[in-house]
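Internal ticket #5521
Category: modeling
Description: The requester needs a full-assembly model to guide mutagenesis choices. All entity lines are attached below as received. Residue total reported by intake: 409.
Assigned to: D.W.
Attached entities:
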Amino acid sequence: MRVLSALLARDLGLLLGSGRGGPWLPVLFFVAVAVLFPFAVGPDAPLLARTGGGVLWIAALLAAILPIDRLIAPDLEAGFFDQFALRGISEELVLAVRLMAHWLTFGPLLLIAALPAAALFNLPGDTARMLLLGLLAGTPGLAAIGIIISSMTASLRGGAALGGLLLIPLAVPILIFGAGALANPDGEGLALCAAISLAMCAVAPFASGAAVRAAREG
Amino acid sequence: MEGARLAAHDIACRRGDRLLFAGLSFDLAAGDALQVTGANGTGKSSLIRILAGLLRPFSGSVERGGDIALLDGNLPLDAHLPLGTALGFWEKIDRPRVSAVDDGLAALADVPVRFLSTGQRKRAAVLQSNPAANAIWLLDEPLNGLDIDAVGALQARIARHCAGGGIAVVASHQPLTIANLRQIALADYAA
């Protein structure tokens, strides 16, 4: 418990403070997409209302992976994971805490930012509600994807480029059901989105823990 | 509590396609200090990581009795935080252990880690590695960047650690003055 709280306090301090870029970059990115998209496609209100939800999903996905080069790699280089291993603190625990901190520092802010973003697209009430619920269900999964990609590319040079490639297969399921729920608001898509999101969160610490250990042996 | 012990049985190390050393064996008991010498690239750092359990030996095995504390070339402290806060994180993690004190660093508690000099970073790393009383303390080039006073202080610290029932393994090409120091030259085991 003592270790857990120390880890979480450090991670939140890192991600919220200026040490690793701060929490505003993903949110500003998200809002910027919402502001700029209507300029790009023109003032066609029905079109914007129809496509807006999907665009915001993509923006949320990209915002979640914006900080991936700073999530794991600096700790790996500075030897934090070595010192944790020597103290009997498993990579899985460290990364589960990191996943929680990553979501806490971008998920809630993104949900708040989604309100003005939905208004900019003039989304109908039902769609806006499904978007918010969908993002609530999906953002933990997006955070998990960020952690997995960031661990797998942490020890590689040019890892960011590979990260973009890895993102596609990992993000497709959440997008299909999360953004799909916007069109048929019966809640089934949402449930599946939440299920995939939770499965991602369950797998992420183990997948990225193995990646970090492999990087150490290399 | 059983005393510290560190034994290497016939270990070999391969990095990439090169076999760095082979057939290395030793047995250390509580109170022993061992210096590993060798030119750059002979595998001193790899040996330290193998002894720490962070790297698998190509063959052979390592027996460890006791906690491991590692001081290597890294400084696992958050660079943007003041030194006191950055060390505080490890104190929270290591709470049951006795924290060492470095009087020279106490004055730097408010200085961000990234502004520390090479020698100050090394001294901070010594505090971070924070070996428990009867731990196996592995030090990889601990004297790099230290001035004469700090070198003396660190050697005294290592001697105290061994006298207190711990084990120290120091990889360094510089001569050390520590009582009862055993030596292994990696060149003798080059494959």
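Resolution: model delivered.
Comment from assignee: The interface with chain A takes residues 52-56, 67-70, 72, 74-81, 89-90, 92-95, 128-129 of chain B (CB under 8 Å).
Ticket closed.
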